[in-house]
Amino acid sequence: MVTKLKSRNITENDFPKDADDLTKVSFILHYAILAPSSWNAQPWIFKLQGNTIKLFHDAERMQTHRDPLGRENIISCGAALCNLRIALRRFGFLEETVIMPPNSEENLIAEVTWKNTGEFGKDNKLFKAIQQRHSYRKPFTDEIVKPELIELFENAAKVYGCEFIPITINSTQMALAGMISEGDKDLGADLATRKEYASWVRSSGRSEDGVPGYAMGNTNAVAGILAPLTHRVFNYTDEFARGDQALTCATTLLGVITSPTDTPSDWVQSGQAVERVLLSAAANGLQASFLNQPIPVVELRKRLQSLLGLTDWPQLILRIGYPTEAPKVTARRKLDDVLLL
Ligand SMILES: Cc1cc2nc3c(=O)[nH]c(=O)nc-3n(C[C@H](O)[C@H](O)[C@H](O)COP(=O)(O)O)c2cc1C
């Protein structure tokens, strides 16, 4: 059964070329669920109906305190949608996608209607990058990201009607670093938010979802295993604020993903946009991590808009650069757990 395969270990050679179309589409979903998601909550459910894939937001996996509207989870579903569409084309399926169709079922994010042409896609750089992309939270090398790559990221976001705004002026970068640190402090000052975060921290290497301890800065083996406990008991807000500010200042490229308005469809599009930017980066040897802390804080989001002279809505903040070591790999839930046939 293709649904028993592990997404992280899958290869193109596993594609069930002699199977029926539904089995092929199920196989392709393994690539969708390699998308990044807020707290690695993987808040998606897929339903296969005839030649349509329905992607739903799994509202039970929301961070209800920090994100009561589910903005970040819907963005995460958008990232999975981006992967799905790229992987469908790779394996010869044409698709048409409708985002949040009107009068549709609750929590429906998108309907993707497919047709198998049997003709495999030729330009597979972005497809291959699905397995190369990982969140990379360590310092990058000081190699400058070339202007043509920045242009590639700008164009990637535009495919979905969004913008990638590169931060190229040093004083703006420093101001943004200050806001990220303020965001850390603002969110961390709230006990309920801290508890919610802690509930998604997992022992390093021991879970199919959530953020492993090492990603929270618990880099030695014992601290990584104890992380779910220590993050419930201790308040690391000041360490996060200092660490994130230092990382931001030391990064050669920061970028903000924006959308024209701030509706749930904009969040889906922002998710597709950020994933295409991340895949374009990974396809060129770069990695990235998220530093979104100012965005959930209303006043900081407004200040970010005015810092960048924007009327559009900032949705995500990225640092992008060349990694100094192999990125760590996070786990995914089994396809069986997110697929309704
Ligand atoms: C909408 C969204 C918000 C995220 N916010 C953060 C964040 O604030 N800090 C962070 O370190 N990672 C953040 N991430 C990255 C996730 O933690 C990461 O994608 C997840 O742990 C899976 O790991 P991977 O990206 O290496 O596959 C975010 C990802 C998404 C899609």
What do you see in this structure?
This protein has 341 residues and is an alpha+beta fold. The protein has two domains: 2-132 and 330-340, 3-Layer(aba) Sandwich (NADH Oxidase); 147-321, NADH Oxidase, CATH 3.40.109.10. 41% of the residues lie in helices and 17% in strands. The chain is built from eleven helices and eleven strands. It has helices at 21-32, 71-90, 125-132, 147-158, 170-188, 191-198, 221-233, 237-250, 264-283, 298-307, 335-338; strands spanning 44-49, 52-57, 93-99, 108-116, 163-167, 201-202, 211-212, 253-259, 287-290, 313-321, 339-340. The strands form three sheets. Strands 3-4-2-1-11 form a five-stranded mixed sheet. Strands 5-8-10-9 form a four-stranded antiparallel sheet, sandwiched between helices. Strands 6-7 form a two-stranded parallel ribbon. α3 crosses α9. The longest helix is centred in the first third of the chain and has 20 residues, at 71-90. It is globular, with a radius of gyration of 19 Å. The relative contact order is 0.18. The mean pLDDT is 94. Flavin mononucleotide binds at residues 36-40, 72, 75-76, 79, 134-135, 137, 211, 289-290, 292, 330.
